[in-house]
Amino acid sequence: MHRRIQWPDGKSFAFTIFDDPDHQGSGSVEPVYSLLSELGFRTTVSVWPLRGSGRPRIGGVTCEDPAYRAWILDLQRKGFEVALHNATYHTSSRQETHDGLERFKTLFGHYPHSMANHTGCRESIYWGRDRLSGAHRWIYDLLHPRQSPDEFEGHIEHSPLFWGDLCREKVRYVRNFTFSEINTLKACPMMPYHDPDRPFVQSWFAGTEGPCVTTFTDMLREENQDRLAAEGGASIVYTHFSQGFVEQNRVQPEFERLMRRLSRLNGWFVPAHTLLDFLATKRQGQSLAVADRSRVERRWLLQKMFKTRGRS
């Protein structure tokens, strides 16, 4: 049994959201953030610092767009975290990733506290089968027969896409496994953790799946909210607010209803890196034990085989 965490300010549980920019256009998700701000939530929005020059698998607006950039900076001023979703929406060379990190620092005053790999970017770090160890890699290969074993190269030192040293130096937290469990900390109780077998990442964290409005609202239904609070847990929901959360420039009604209900509970509603920093003080630089790695990998693989609801 893991000791129940005493959250700051007498709060009963922690909840935040990590929003990826996939499919976003300038002006497409502002009503969601207006609602979050009104209700007292401070969450995390990830961005692409650079405009892409090639064809993405999944694209969207970048920080090169003046209106979008101004809006993101306003969110930062209001207390939202800005995170990284790779340098841009397609595969980037080492130099491009370097430039993206420097552009991020110029825009936001610091390197990204947290990041998540973007779909289809081959410089993604420890991604695909390299998220896993031993026999779990072979199971992953069976589930992804079309994926090349060396598709992702951000951590491979001889690759022109390598940026592992930059990641280790400039980024504190990287998202890895995602689960359908609302209590992310229950699914991955060791987070944030360092994995000695993946040395180019300082610390990993997990997420709860809510990639579109349907999966998000199903995950956030009343009984799950109450259980999260009763367990004293922590939820870091990964999502794409571009996927059905805004209808005719208004927030989707069920999402709004559930978020209003959640806001009335005694939760600690802070950005992802603030939550992870707090957990890190409890972990005292925890490195991932072999048995813990095996358990979290196995749980994620079983979900991939039987309960998959998201892409990550």
- Under CATH at level 1, the class stands as Alpha Beta
The helix count comes to 11
The count of domains is 1
Cα distance spanning the termini: 28 Å
Q: Please, could you describe this protein's structure?
A:
By secondary structure, this protein is of the alpha/beta class. It has one domain (11-306): Alpha-Beta Barrel (TIM Barrel). The chain contains 11 helices and 10 strands. The strands form 2 sheets. Strands 1, 2, 3, 4, 5, 6, 7 and 10 form an 8-stranded parallel sheet that branches. Strand 1 (13-19), helix 1 and strand 2 form a beta-alpha-beta unit. Helix 4 (135-143) packs parallel to helix 11 (290-306). The longest helix is centred in the last third of the chain and has 17 residues, at 290-306.
